Amino acid sequence: MTEFFQSLGMNYEWAWFVATIAGILLIALPLMLSVAMIIYVDRKVWAAINLRRGPNVVGPFGLLQSFADGLKVFLQETIIPSAANKGIFLLAPILTFTVALAAWAVVPFSATAVLADINIGLLYILAISSLSVYGVVMSGWASNSKYPFFSAMRAAAQMISYEVSIGFILVCVVLFAGTFNLNDIVRSQQGFGLGIVNAYVIHPLLFPMWVMFFISSLAETQRVPFDLTEAESELVAGYQTEYSSMSFALFWLGEYANILLMCILNALLFWGGWLPPIDWAPLYYVPGIVWLLLKTFFFFFMFSWVMATVPRYRYDQLMRLGWKVFLPISLGFVVVISGYLMATGHFG
Fold first, then answer.
1. Rounded Cα distance, 205 and 193, in Å
2. CA-to-CA distance for 44 and 62, rounded, in angstroms?
3. Residue 278 pairs with which residues in a beta bridge?
4. pTM of full prediction above 0.85
5. DSSP assignment, residue 313?
6. Contacts of 250 (CB under 8 A, 6+ apart)
7. Contact 242/143 with Cβ under 8 angstroms?
8. What are phi and psi of 234, to 5 degrees?
9. Cis amide linkage into residue 287, ω under 30° from 0
10. Could you give the CA distance from residue 269 to residue 292 in angstroms, rounded to a whole number?
11. Beta bridge partners of 193
12. What is the dihedral angle through the alpha carbons of 212, 216, 218, 223, rounded to the nearest 10 degrees?
């Protein structure tokens, strides 16, 4: 894209700057539109599973319901509790939303459609996703209310518990791929399964890792059954209790952007990303971004399905699963996979 703007008469510095801004907008604007639509899809899936209709009034089939909700919160008054720390209270939703968008900079939508194709893309996403908890902690502390404060403490403990096991799971993927670059990880999955299937998940040592990664994704994004930070039966609404108007909406946008990120990471790391499911030449005529979006939508449907059917864990169950089940299993698989790759000459 930089070359295109240079052809219009710009020098390299200005062409690079304009191309970068254009790339950011090409990711951020469709992402915001996608967030609005997946909230609608989320509610429709819940309704279908519960034998209800879901949104069906605003626009054809209720498609404009999310935009009506967005307009409503935009027109509401922002109320700040008198005892709150005003600066941090307002900064928390901004930080949550900004961090959620920043992670998308290294996501490859196809072999060439990526804003920053860096060699440590996977480490970058792991670091950025860890920062998302700061928005929750800041909002809980700044609200000067006990329920948001309890939610903030839960969020910090939950993030630490599942980030550790996610890190070991990603080590297993990196061992097979030999790189931290997300595009190269996708390419390494071509024909991986019996020379036919483009996916790591077909391997018996990596399938359990994907199952654990999917469950950890639910915990990382505070989705049911791990939504202990927003447990309405215990904490009113958790860290969002004192928020209203656009500050509340920014939390929702950041939350769903993180959910979409985890869905797309499931596809990229284990299910072939922008590659077609089968290594068959005619399937490569379909653009890679179409395959990636289909896989991402499938994982989002699974997220919604779990939310509509699985009851919420108790907090002690959440901690036990993270520390006593996922952590030792993922660490054990790092050892087993390393030994397997050494024995088969993968490192040779």
1. 12
2. 10
3. 197
4. yes
5. P
6. 93, 94, 96, 97
7. yes
8. -120, -40
9. no
10. 11
11. 197
12. 140
Cα–Cα distance between 136 and 142 in angstroms, integer? 10
DSSP string, 14-65: HHHHHHHHHHHHHHHHHHHHHHHHHHHHHHHHHHHHTT---S-SSSGGGTTH
Instruction: Give how far Cα 320 sits from Cα of 27, 170, 227, Å.
Output: 38, 21, 15
- Residue 108 makes CB contacts below 8 A (sequence gap 6+) with 114, 117, 121, 182, 183, 186, 268, 273, 274
Which neighbouring-strand residues pair with 197? 193, 278
CA–CA separation, 210 and 59 (whole Å):
38
Count of CA atoms in the C-beta half-sphere (13 A) of 213: 28
Runs of H (alpha helix) within the chain: 2-7, 12-49, 65-75, 86-102, 121-142, 146-177, 182-187, 207-220, 232-235, 245-270, 288-309, 315-320, 327-343
CB 221 within 8 A of CB 306: no
Of the candidates 140, 120, 173, 190, the residue with the CA atom closest to the CA atom of residue 330 = 173
- Residue labelled with tokens 């970058």: 124
pLDDT in tens, the chain (348 residues): 677 777 777 777 888 888 888 888 888 888 888 888 898 999 999 899 988 988 888 888 888 998 898 888 888 888 888 888 888 888 988 898 899 889 999 999 988 888 888 999 999 998 888 888 888 888 888 888 888 888 888 888 888 888 889 999 999 999 999 899 999 999 999 988 888 899 999 999 999 999 999 999 998 888 888 887 776 666 667 778 888 888 888 888 888 999 999 999 999 999 999 999 999 889 999 999 999 999 999 999 999 999 888 888 888 888 899 899 999 999 999 999 999 998 887 754
Structural contact between residues 244 and 79, judged by C-beta atoms closer than 8 angstroms: yes
